[in-house]
Amino acid sequence: MDLGLINGYAAVALLMTGLYIVLAYDNPIKRLIGLSIFQAAIFVLYISMGRIAGGTAPILAEGIERYSHPLPHVLILTAIVVGVAMLALGLALIVRIHEEYGSIDEQHILELEREPDA
Amino acid sequence: MSEHALLAIDAVLLIILLTTAIAIARQRNLFAAAMMTGLFSLTLACLFVLLDAMDVAFTEAAVGAGISTVLMLSALALTEYRDHPTSRGQHTLALLLCFAVGGLLMFAASEWPALGAPDTPVHQHPITAHYLEQSQQEIDLPNVVTSVLSSYRGYDTLGEVTVVFTAGLAVLILLLGVRRDNHEEDDA
């Protein structure tokens, strides 16, 4: 196996872990953590693509010929900030749900909803 | 740094990342899981420094390891940090699904270009040379990432700011709405 491919494989493994957390747990905070890990997998994939062997960070300087590609870096910068905005919104919704029902457990809320006087 | 040394450090960091992710998945205490997310983000920032993405590493360390962890801890303080167990059937189904998706992607990943290969479409595209050779004259900034972020792809950044603004507004409405409702109940 070519050792240069490990970043791709690791990105897929991280993606699987994130997907598992999202699917296997009912707790919404845990699901948001899973989504963050899923996102991180994509970040690893993009940043790995931008790198070039023998290159350096894309800050122009005398005597340097090779730079890593700046565009994946820009896209991932945007993605990180948008990801945090999404996390904040998700957590605010969870706090609101907790205010309303006194619980954030999906099964528990569904039981509360089924009660006739609720 | 030689390519072999870099790949060795890269492998170690990836193993730490994966171990942390699996530990988060198995952790029942959400407080511990939130702290491990901070550790995960910090390791990710180290990986970005290794892969020559300094600006991304700064952002990940500040926003990912800092703000995200604080947000998560404050949400946990306002709600609860016990994770109720879910049924075994749901876990099995989740595992099956994620191995199906992961298997397909692993198959695809074997065809992806190796780390640092110079002959990939990413590095061969004419826009790469334009950004790296012309931005010094056109934008007059040594940091190409800043040039691309604020000028060449300025509309992207405008969109990003719009998203962040909207999300911030929505969070304020959601959380201030809670307080107003409580006051109305107090008056009644």
Helix-strand string of chain A = HHHH
Structural class of chain B: mainly alpha
Name the average pLDDT of chain B: 89
Helices and strands of chain B, in order, run as HHHHHHHH
Q: What is the top-level CATH class of chain A?
A: Mainly Alpha
InterPro entries (chain B): CPA3_Na-H_Antiporter_A, MrpA_C/MbhD, MrpA_C/MbhE, Nuo/plastoQ_OxRdtase_6_NuoJ
Transmembrane segments (chain B): 6-25, 30-51, 57-79, 91-109, 158-178
Membrane topology (chain B): Multi-pass membrane protein
Subcellular location (chain B): Cell membrane
Brief rundown of the structure:
Chain A: It is a multi-pass membrane protein. Chain A: Keywords: Cell membrane, Membrane, Transmembrane, Transmembrane helix, Ubiquinone. Helices cover about 70% and strands about 0% of the residues of chain A.
Task: Please tell me about this protein's structure.
The complex is a heterodimer of chains A (about 120) and B (about 190). With about 120 residues, chain A is mainly alpha-helical. Chain A has one domain (about 5-55, about 70-115): Helix Hairpins (Orthogonal Bundle). Helix content of chain A is about 70%, strand content about 0%. Chain B is mainly alpha-helical and about 190 residues long. Chain B is built from 8 helices and no strands. Chain B starts with a helix and ends with a helix. The model of chain B has no long low-confidence stretch (mean pLDDT about 90). Chain B: It is a multi-pass membrane protein.
Keywords:
heterodimer, A: 118 residues, mainly alpha, Helix Hairpins, 4 helices, B: 188 residues, 8 helices, 81% helix, globular
List the helices and strands and how they pair.
The complex is a heterodimer of chains A (118) and B (188).
Chain A: H1 6-24, H2 28-50, H3 70-101, H4 106-114
Helix pairs in contact in A: 1-2, 2-3
Chain B: H1 3-26, H2 30-50, H3 54-78, H4 88-109, H5 121-124, H6 126-138, H7 144-152, H8 154-187
Helix pairs in contact in B: 1-2, 2-3, 7-8
